[in-house]
Amino acid sequence: MGGSGTTAALAAAEEGLQVLAIDKAGRYGGTSSITSEALFVNPPRFQAEHNNGEDYTDADVMYDAWVAYGEGDAKEDIVHRMIYESGEVLDWLVYDHGVGFAEPMTGFTESDVYVTKYQWLPNDIMYNKAEIGAYFDGMWSDFEELGGTYLLETEGYELIYDEATNTVTGAKARNLADGTEYTINADAVIIATGGYAGSPELEEQLLRNDYYPIKGVWKHLGSTQNDGKMLQAAMDIGAGTYNISMPPEVHNSGTETWLTTQFDAHYIEGQLGKVTGRPSFWTEGDLPANLGWSADSLAVDANGERFTSETGVSFLDPWIAGPNYYSIWSQEQLDKIAAEGFDTDRSGPSAEFLSSGTPIPMNTPVPNVEEVMAAAEEAGIVVKADTIEELAEKLGMDPATLTATVETYNGYCETGVDEQFGKPAEFLDPIGEGPYYCVVMASYCYGSCGGLNINSDMQVLAEDGETVINGLYAVGTDSMGVLFTEKKPYVTYGGANNGWGLVSGYLCGKGLGETLGQE
């Protein structure tokens, strides 16, 4: 009953179908209700009101770019539906169901020129989740008025499957509060359960190191109820997957655990947290994470090698190293922070969504650095050693490799030219005299990206990639892999996951109404 489940249920109910929706959580809205934006392309009614009826973006150019990004792996017919039919979904949400979206913007990088990122209203603040929740209140109220029924705290765990006819005829579910068992008979079952990032077991099972070192368990910033149980149920009856090992969707990084409450809070007068809306504060306990976010740091992967410009480790690039990356610092650098503070800006999604919600202000001395780093070492998020070689050994890295990485990086700092990743000279700060420290950082994912294999009608396909499993559909994150490739990360257009959820759910629900309504 997140974004995809909501639009699927509501669209199907509008088509006159009898619909039962269930959700494992005690609330509806899912991950969609805690996002910032969604991707849509050229909504006609919205454009008529806000843009003189003119298109915001060239849909043909965007379609070609999306398909090219998929390197032949993205299913072009489904990308086509996403690009060319998403606009009507935004119009339906806004004008038929009172959902608020701002005028669109471009995406997160300079290459994201497509004006397709629609932020929820109000979009002048990030603590707008109550307002977003109210939109879902309205949609589920509309659903009930159409005769729909829903159950919360009710987990689907098994599909009812007739092997002889290759048909799903319902599902089994359980109320997590009182243990009530349900056998739900249905003409169609739509899986809209948000992917598998809430399941460490499925992450270990499904993620592979074919293109990037992504196998393992990832820290999760999304909805933990998205544990892939119904994905597994579908695979158990022979459903195929598509790009199931695509890198998770990552926009944040941080330490594995936090020391926020172990040190005093320092409130910033007159400033509110961008995410919380409460008075902003920072604490020395967030020092390790601030080190790991710093553009002037040296970040390496599990092999002791750099993997990106450190300007990207706090936002779009930490995943490249896998579930963890390692931020290397010298005593000389920490002594400077103790006396003078940070001279780089660490604000952004990671600092705003994690820890205290505010980075340590620039040029603010942190005199108790030694105390904080000792506490971090005790907590297991910092490793300290007298030499780089010893540090490598403690981290399980090859000492020669890490030593060479540090020497090469220091050479770039001396010349002012990062020959490997092009990091600007202003962020090239050499690793000085020891002892040496490593902050163990983690990528925080919103969710998985790969999912079940579907056709353009959202019907789940068998392992052969062609046979339709009758009566079974998958939308949202549970089928998003069809839009992408395992060779590359999630796109940076802005809101693609949420947009796909809202759009695929609507298209599936409406399509089912048209199909089942004729039977």
Mind explaining what this structure looks like?
It is a single chain. Strands 9, 11, 14, 15, 16 and 17 form a six-stranded mixed β-sheet that branches. The chain has a three-stranded antiparallel β-sheet with strand order 5-6-7. It has 519 residues and is α+β, with helices and mostly antiparallel strands. Strand 19 and strand 20 (468-474) form a beta hairpin. It folds into two domains: 3-248 and 448-516, 3-Layer(bba) Sandwich (FAD/NAD(P)-binding domain); 251-445, Alpha-Beta Complex (Flavocytochrome C3, Chain A, domain 1), CATH 3.90.700. It starts with a helix and ends with a helix. The mean pLDDT is 97. The chain has helices spanning 3-14, 44-50, 59-69, 76-97, 129-145, 200-206, 229-236, 287-293, 331-340, 349-353, 369-379, 388-395, 399-415, 496-516; strands at residues 20-22, 37-39, 117-119, 149-151, 154-162, 167-175, 181-185, 189-191, 219-220, 241-242, 249-255, 265-272, 279-283, 298-300, 324-330, 382-385, 436-447, 451-452, 459-461, 468-474. Helix 1 (3-14) runs parallel beside helix 5, helix 3 crosses helix 4 and helix 12 (388-395) crosses helix 13. The chain is 31% helix and 19% strand. The protein contains 14 helices and 20 strands.
